[in-house]
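Lab notebook, bench 4. We co-purified these components, and the gel suggests they stay together. Before we commit to crystallization screens, I want a quick structural picture of the whole thing.
Request: model the full complex, all chains together.
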Amino acid sequence: DGGITQSPKYLFRKEGQNVTLSCEQNLNHDAMYWYRQDPGQGLRLIYYSQIVNDFQKGDIAEGYSVSREKKESFPLTVTSAQKNPTAFYLCASRRDSYSSSNYGYTFGSGTRLTVV
Amino acid sequence: GENVEQHPSTLSVQEGDSAVIKCTYSDSASNYFPWYKQELGKRPQLIIDIRSNVGEKKDQRIAVTLNKTAKHFSLHITETQPEDSAVYFCAASRSYNTDKLIFGTGTRLQVFP
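Here is the predicted assembly.
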């Protein structure tokens, strides 16, 4: 799956419930990112991590939490404090060096979260 | 804060025509500008990128131009085909390898046969 795997593909959350979205990569990338995609709003950065055991808030971190205990894994928890969590969530990782052929993020296939 | 504006939000062209999507950025320290294509239900894929020491880059039917003075960059698709139909995102960051990407809001391109 392109070296970065997100699961589950679809997730339903009840009001007041915390849910965790999985993101795993086997590309040996140092940096990992979580974006939220809403119609007409593009991709907005939630959290990112450039190294194990370290992460930074993005533009819309409220109501979300992350951990980076292993280089390969960057799970995202959507907490009950996130009032409007219904969206498409994309995880990405980044190569460290530039090559003339291709550079940039590698994205996972996404998780669609719906509040029921 | 850092911001990337993208226009138009939707674009319809006839097959064989050209399409142009424009982006402006606010952070003058930005120097890496990739473009992503996202087909319906799929993940975004990098299609072309440009760094600030280059004004234009071309790859077959797609090209990107950069004007650092005006802080804007554009994607040009020539000889459009129905398979070019997708949502296109521009993005900007301060570094190609050490900084987060800030994305534009996307352009939905439809190519009619």
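Residues 13 and 115 of chain A are 5 Å apart (CA to CA). Worth comparing against the SEC data before the next meeting. Chain A has a mean pLDDT of 89.
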